[in-house]
Specification:
Strand order of the largest sheet: 3-14-11-12
Strand content: 15-25%
Oligomer: single chain
Order of helices and strands: EEEEHEEEEEHEEEEEHHHHEEHHHHHH
Structural class: alpha+beta
Amino acid sequence: VLADRRKSPTKFVWPVKYFTMFHMTNDSALFRTRRELEDQEGAYPIDGNRFGSPTGEWVPLYEGKMAQAYDHRAASIVVNPENQHRPAQPEPATLEQHQNPDWLPDPQFWVASSKCGWSQGSTWVLGFKEITATTNVRTFISTLFPTVGFGNKVPIFMPETEDRSEWFLAANFNATIFDFSTRQKVQGQTLNLFIVEQLPVVPLDQYDTIRFGPKTAGEIIREAVLELTYTTHDMAPFARDMGYVDETGEARPPFPWDEDRRLLLRARLDAVYFHLYGVTDRDDVRYVYSTFPIVERQETEAYGGYRSRDLCLAYMN
C-alpha cells in the first residue's frame, strides 16, 4: 500500500508527500478572474495562460474538472452567471486544440505565483482528481501538471527527494488494474487521503528488476508516459528532466496528439501493470475490463469493439 501506518513511523512506499494548495472557499480572496486581473492588477498576458503584472506573475488556478488522465488541458472553465448553483462548468478541449502544442485552457481564476510556494527549480508536479465515483468512466484520474496553482480538489504529490520519479506513479494511478482496485475502496464521491494511502502501488525497485524482453518495465513505462504527457510546450521542463533533449540540451518538440496512438500506448501500459500486479490469466483481464462498461461502450461506438482490452491482451502476449 502507498502508506503503511500499522507501525510507527509510517512506512511510505514512495518518497512523496500528499499536499493540497488552495482551499477554494477559504482562500478565495487570493483569486482573480481575468477581468479582475486586467482592471485591478494591471495584468497582461505573457505566456500561454499566465499573466504578468506590476506585482509579479499570475498563474492559472487548476480545478479537477480541467484535467483527465495524462492531460492537464482537458477543459477550460466557462462561467454562466445565470446558473446560480454551478456557474463554472468545463468546456472540453477540441481535437484541434489538443493538437496545437501552444494551446492551454482558460481557468476560472488566477492566483499570484508568489502565493503558490513553489521552491526554486520546481517545474512540474503529479496531481489527481479528488472528486470521482465508481460509476464514472474511470475512478482514479491522474496527470502531470506544470507548476501552477491548484484548488483543493486537485491534491498533488510533492517529491521528498531530488531524484524525480513520480511519472511512474502517474502511470500506476492511470492503469486499469489499479483503477479496478480503487473501485473496491471508494464508497462515496471523494478520493480522500485515507483511501489513497490504502491503494496498492508497485514499489519503485520493481521497475528496474522486472524485464520484458530487452527492456525493463521502467524503460517501457518511461517512454510511454513521456509521449502521453509531453504534448504541449509548457511541459518542456518535464521533457528535459526525462532526457528528451537535443544536442544543445533544449527539449525537443512536443509529441503530436494522436488519439489512436494514445490508446495504443495506454494499452501497452495496462499490459505491463497487469503483469506487475500478477494478474496474467486472460479471463481475469477480460473480467477487469468488463467492469468499465462506459469505456467499452465508447470504444465500441468509435472502433467497433473493445479496442483497449484487445490491444492489452495482444501486448500481454
